Structures are given as C-alpha cells and as structure tokens.
From TrEMBL:
InterPro entries xref list: Aminotrans_V_dom, Pser_aminoTfrase, PyrdxlP-dep_Trfase, PyrdxlP-dep_Trfase_major, PyrdxlP-dep_Trfase_small
UniProt key word Magnesium: no
GO terms of molecular function: O-phospho-L-serine:2-oxoglutarate aminotransferase activity; pyridoxal phosphate binding
Pathway: Cofactor biosynthesis; pyridoxine 5'-phosphate biosynthesis; pyridoxine 5'-phosphate from D-erythrose 4-phosphate: step 3/5; Amino-acid biosynthesis; L-serine biosynthesis; L-serine from 3-phospho-D-glycerate: step 2/3
EC numbers on record: 2.6.1.52
Gene: serC
UniProt cofactor note: Binds 1 pyridoxal phosphate per subunit.
Residues modified as N6-(pyridoxal phosphate)lysine: 190
Protein name per its UniProtKB record: Phosphoserine aminotransferase
Function: Catalyzes the reversible conversion of 3-phosphohydroxypyruvate to phosphoserine and of 3-hydroxy-2-oxo-4-phosphonooxybutanoate to phosphohydroxythreonine.
Provenance organism: Hallella colorans
Family: Belongs to the class-V pyridoxal-phosphate-dependent aminotransferase family. SerC subfamily.
Length: 355
C-alpha cells in the first residue's frame, strides 16, 4: 500500500534524494567504493561538503561573513554550544515550548538568562508578539517553529539585539533574512536530510568573544577553521543533505517551498475548520505550516482512536500528536505532496460521513 508520511522528524524526504543517496552508498561516483567506505579527507568527499555549503548559502542568500558548518550532537547539543560561544553576560530567550525551554535551561549554565516572553500560560498554543526586548542582551534566542505544539513565527522579527534561532523544523521552507541573526542552527532531520547531522550558520566576527575557555569540540572556531573536518563528519547524512539542497534548488528554491507550504497547510486547516469532528489546537494567526496539530471536537472525543486507525488503514503514517498535545499532528515539510494532504483530507471527510 502507498504510504503517506506525516512523521515529525526524522521525516519525509524527496524520493529522488533517497534514491540518489542509496546509489552512492552502493558505489560512490563510480569509484568502486561505497559512500560509507571512503575517507572524509579523500578528494572524493571534499566536493560534497563544498557543494552543500555553497547550495545552503545560495538558497538562503546568506551574506558575506557567515560560515556554514556541519556538526554532530543534534539541535540539542546546540542548546549548550550556542551560549558557550555567544553568552558574554546576559541572554534573552523566548519560551514557546518544549525545545525553547530546553535551550533556555542549558543557557543558564553560562550566565544570566532572561525569559523575555513566554506562551506557557496557555500551554504554548500561541507565539508571543510585541514583547519588550532589553537592549543589553548579548542575543535573543527564538524557536521559529515549535514542532511539538504546531505554532510558527514565520518571519524574521526586528530586535534591538542580535538574534539566534533554532530553525530545526522550518529551515528551507521560506526565505530568511540571515543578516538579522548571528547564528541559525538545527537538526537536519526535519526538513533537510536523514538524521545524523546538525547545521549551524554562524556570523564569523561574533566568534571568539566568550569570556571562558571552551572545550575544543564545543568551539565553533574549531569547525569553521577546519571546514567541518576537524573530526570525522557524518558522511552519509551530509551527502543526503546535499541531494536535498539540489532538489530544493531544482524545484524553485525557498520561495517556491514557501508557496507550497502555504498551499498544503491551507488545504489541511480549511478541512479542520470545516469538519464537525475536528478542531485546531493553536491560535489561528500562529498556526504552523510545518506541523499541523488538531484534536477531536469535545463531543467526538471517543472517536480519536478510531480515526487514527481509519487513517492508518489508508496508509497514513506518523499522525499521532505529541504526548504533550494529544490528538493528531500532520507534519508537512518540503517533501510533503499535495497528494499526501489530499489523502488526509479525504480520510477526514470520509470519516465524518460515517459519524
Ligand atoms: C527536533 C527538534 C529539536 C531536537 O533536535 P535533535 O537534533 O534531536 O537534538 C530541537 N528543536 C526543534 C525546534 C526541533 O524540532
């Protein structure tokens, strides 16, 4: 049966990315060696890193003076590495959910941290807007898409201080004004690649200012200076990342990804709002285009498990909402298709007709 993949991460990738990566795993560029067997320092692999960096810079229109590096440890290690490198005295964090809270917690190990705004009062069902940002912060940390709660900022805010963003789950889904940020990071496994690699975009002239001695591996300068080759990089995940960036470019770039995201999300949210069985979980203006969360309407609560089963029988995978929200979550990253969201909407309509 055809599967429709709504997994939140690791998540759906373009079919050709998977096929091309599989081919290179069997025989890398006709060299008779697998992508898994070559040295990362061999002349074979350097062009992959170079092209991946160049494509990310081109697609996001990254200005001069920034580096793109590939690391291990996931976005979760960045929660530590960001403050270790950038927190001098005081940092601000916007608390918009589970991941934002984890980032804030780690930053406290390195200095004073202010929670500048929070949506905890309504269980993270909205994104705070129009809050005051102290002008003496070293940086303001935001999470542009809240993967678990299904809220999204979807713009680059104006702030009197440099921004740092966790863009794990919306990177490459819209144009970004990178010049407003001194760092952008994320696990690549949501919208860019297979699991195993973390991307970090850093502003070079902001490095080396932290008033502490950093372990070599935690110092961004180490990885910038060595072009992500200080230690062995995750070769296969980086290759899959390059293939995805080629695909994004060939499909029309981040503007086209943005258009598609809006088109897909409208189809699903329109049905959530129309269908008597379901309701959305977050403030309308902050609805995520990437992770669409919805629950059964109160009078149909007992139909949750039956709908899940109904959708599963039609090939839908990964629809279960995160345990802190419940209900359903349809993740619609770049590779998600109109066919996929139409199949979901059809299931919602057909299920409604039965009840
Ligand atoms: C998935 C996710 C993370 C955690 O990523 P890991 O690579 O697993 O550490 C952090 N932030 C956001 C917004 C995420 O979606």
């Amino acid at each position: 049966m055809k599967k429709y993949n709504f997994n939140a991460g690791p998540s759906m990738l373009p079919r050709e990315v998977i096929e091309n990566t599989a081919k290179q795993i069997l025989d890398f560029n006709g060299n008779g060696l697998s992508l898994m067997e070559i040295s990362h320092r061999a002349k074979y692999f350097q062009p992959v890193v170079d092209e991946t960096v160049a494509l990310i810079k081109e697609l996001l229109d990254i200005p001069e003076g920034y580096s793109v590096i590939f690391l291990g440890g996931g976005a979760s290690l960045q929660f530590t590495q960001i403050p270790a490198n950038f927190l001098i005295k005081k940092a601000g964090y916007v608390n918009t959910g589970t991941w934002a809270k984890k980032a804030l917690k780690e930053a406290k190990l390195y200095g004073e941290v202010v929670e500048v705004a929070s949506s905890a009062d309504k269980n993270f069902t909205y994104v705070p807007h129009n809050y005051e940002i102290p002008s003496d912060l070293d940086y303001l940390h935001i999470t542009t898409n809240n993967t678990i709660y299904g809220t999204e900022l979807r713009k680059d805010i104006d702030a009197p201080v440099p921004l740092i963003a966790d863009m794990s789950s919306d990177i490459m889904s819209r144009p970004v004004d990178v010049s407003k940020y001194i760092a952008i990071y994320g696990g690549a496994q949501k919208n860019m690649a297979m699991a195993g690699v973390t991307f970090v975009i850093v502003k070079n002239d902001m490095l080396g200012k932290a008033p502490r001695e950093l372990p070599t591996m935690l110092n961004y300068t180490t990885h910038v200076d060595k072009g992500s080759m200080f230690n062995t990089p995750p070769v296969v995940p980086i290759y899959s990342l390059m293939e995805t960036m080629r695909w994004v470019k060939a499909e029309g770039g981040v503007k086209e990804m943005d258009r598609r995201a809006k088109e897909r999300a409208k189809i699903v949210y329109d049905e959530i709002d129309r269908n008597k069985l379901f309701k959305g979980t977050v403030a309308e203006e902050d609805r995520s285009l990437m992770n669409i969360c919805f629950v059964m309407n109160d009078e149909y609560k007992d139909l949750e498990a039956p709908f899940f089963e109904f959708a599963t029988e039609r090939g839908m995978v990964g629809l279960k909402g995160h345990r802190s929200v419940g209900g359903f979550r349809a993740s619609c990253y770049n590779a998600q298709t109109i066919e996929g969201v139409n199949a979901l909407v059809k299931a919602m309509k057909d299920f409604e007709a039965q009840h």
